[in-house]
């Protein structure tokens, strides 16, 4: 068996036209074309999607959990950033 | 049986998919990696799905109360009409891919013709199958190119597989009595007309994959007549185990 692993790819699937692509998971593939085919077989075999994006995992820059304090905690005590201090008129539906 | 030729014609189509589906099913949990494992078993399930439609239709034509299960599970080895190609073993991934590609290229061309059949059940089945098989052919021909035009080792293995399996290709274009009768009635596909296009396409892909096209003119035959290689008995032993051990069981 090969000792080298294929690179990892992140798979995004649009489940319906009009909806956005969502992250479904990841898989291994030798290149983008194979990643698409593998994604088709692994993630859309139960009719889950109408479109697939693949991106090699190494191209994703992720935030470091160690920095969560400075990145995210300052937002916790700023409730006024949520638009919850307005009275919504009855005529406005779907809010 | 009133429509014996049609019945035998359908079995000739369905048995190829049944036996190849069973072969691919053996890979469940044993594929070279998770993704390819799922791909091969997906193809297997597609083929079994197709087989159900064919056998349900065959059961209706037989008209003697036999169900799709009876027809698929209770025949003896010499009553199966599949080509020898599809019963060849999963020697290694190169053999699996080459066998698949050599069959898919035929299967796709065949279904495209069957879509035009005036028999509405057959053309409806073909319409459904053709999309599935287009994907099978895409999968297998991609892998032929990847492995052929890959490393020295992968090319060597692919070349060995194509050299070994080449002798089973000619049988795809043989006609049995039922085939000829169905062609004469305008219902069946005249497979002899597919041969030239098939070899031209297969050679094109093999050349792209830097694999040498075998020149051998010696071909094996017999499967369509029920004369099989030693492999089919073992396949059926596994396929029919439940029905033979617990006759008439249902689940």
Give the tally of structural domains of chain B.
1
Counting DSSP E segments of at least 2 residues, the number of strands of chain A comes to 3
> What's the CATH C level of chain B?
Mainly Alpha
Helix content of chain B: 55-70%
Based on CA atoms alone, the radius of gyration of chain B comes out at: 18 Å
**Proper CATH architecture of chain A:** Roll
Using a beta-carbon cutoff below 8 angstroms, give the protein chain pair with the largest interface and the number of residues from each chain: A-B, 14 and 13 residues
Report how far apart the termini of chain A are. Answer: 56 Å
Instruction: Please indicate the percent range of residues of chain A in DSSP E strands (runs of 2 or more).
Output: 15-25%
Please characterize this protein's 3D structure.
The complex is a heterodimer of chains A (95) and B (251). With 95 residues, chain A is α+β, with helices and mostly antiparallel strands. Chain A contains two helices and three strands; from the N terminus they run ββαβα. Chain A has one domain (8-81): Phenylacetic acid degradation B (Ubiquitin-like (UB roll)), CATH 3.10.20.520. In chain A, strands 2-1-3 form a three-stranded antiparallel β-sheet, covered by helices on one side. Chain A is flat and about 55 Å long. The model of chain A has no long low-confidence stretch (mean pLDDT 88). Chain B has helices at 4-25, 34-62, 68-73, 93-114, 120-148, 152-165, 177-184, 195-208, 231-239, 241-245. Chain B has a single domain (4-245), classed as Up-down Bundle (Ferritin), CATH 1.20.1260. Chain B is globular and about 55 Å long. The two termini of chain B are 30 Å apart. Chain B is built from ten helices and no strands. The mean pLDDT of chain B is 96. Chain A binds chain B through residues 1, 6, 27-30, 33-34, 37-38, 40-42, 45, and chain B through 32-36, 38-39, 42, 135, 138-139, 142, 146.
Give the SSE layout:
The complex is a heterodimer of chains A (95) and B (251).
Chain A (H helix, E strand, L loop, with lengths): L7 E7 L6 E8 L3 H12 L7 E6 L11 H5 L23
Antiparallel strand pairs in A: 1-2, 1-3
Chain B lengths: L3 H22 L8 H29 L5 H6 L19 H22 L5 H29 L3 H14 L11 H8 L10 H14 L22 H9 L1 H5 L6
Helix pairs in contact in B: 1-2, 1-7, 2-5, 4-5, 4-6
């Amino acid at each position: 068996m090969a000792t080298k692993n294929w690179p990892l790819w992140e798979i995004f699937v649009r489940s319906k036209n009009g909806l956005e692509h969502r992250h479904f998971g990841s898989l291994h593939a030798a290149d983008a074309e194979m990643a698409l085919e593998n994604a088709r077989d692994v993630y859309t075999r139960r009719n889950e999607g109408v479109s697939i994006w693949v991106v090699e995992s190494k191209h994703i820059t992720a935030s470091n959990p160690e920095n969560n304090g400075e990145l995210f905690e300052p937002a916790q005590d700023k409730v006024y950033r949520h638009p919850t201090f307005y009275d919504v008129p009855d005529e406005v539906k779907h809010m | 049986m009133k429509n014996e030729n049609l019945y035998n014609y359908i079995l000739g189509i369905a048995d190829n998919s049944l036996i190849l589906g069973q072969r691919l099913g053996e890979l469940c949990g044993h594929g070279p990696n998770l993704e390819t494992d799922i791909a091969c078993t997906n193809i297997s399930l597609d083929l079994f799905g197709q087989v159900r439609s064919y056998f349900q239709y065959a059961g209706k034509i037989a008209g003697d109360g036999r169900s799709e299960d009876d027809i698929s599970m209770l025949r003896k080895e010499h009553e199966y009409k599949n080509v020898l190609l599809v019963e060849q073993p999963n020697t290694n991934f190169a053999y699996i891919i080459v066998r698949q590609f050599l069959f898919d290229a035929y299967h796709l061309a065949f279904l495209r013709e069957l879509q035009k059949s005036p028999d509405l059940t057959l053309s409806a089945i073909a319409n459904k199958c053709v999309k599935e098989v287009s994907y099978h052919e895409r999968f297998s021909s991609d892998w032929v190119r990847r492995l052929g035009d890959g490393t020295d080792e992968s090319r060597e293995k692919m070349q060995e597989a194509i050299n070994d399996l080449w002798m089973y290709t000619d049988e795809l274009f043989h006609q049995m009595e039922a085939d000829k009768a169905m062609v004469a009635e305008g219902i069946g596909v005249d497979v002899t007309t597919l041969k030239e296009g098939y070899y031209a396409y297969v050679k094109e892909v093999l050349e792209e994959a830097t694999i040498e096209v075998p020149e051998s003119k010696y071909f094996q035959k017999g499967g369509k007549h029920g004369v099989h290689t030693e492999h089919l008995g073992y396949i059926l032993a596994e396929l029919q185990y439940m029905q033979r051990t617990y006759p008439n069981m249902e689940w």
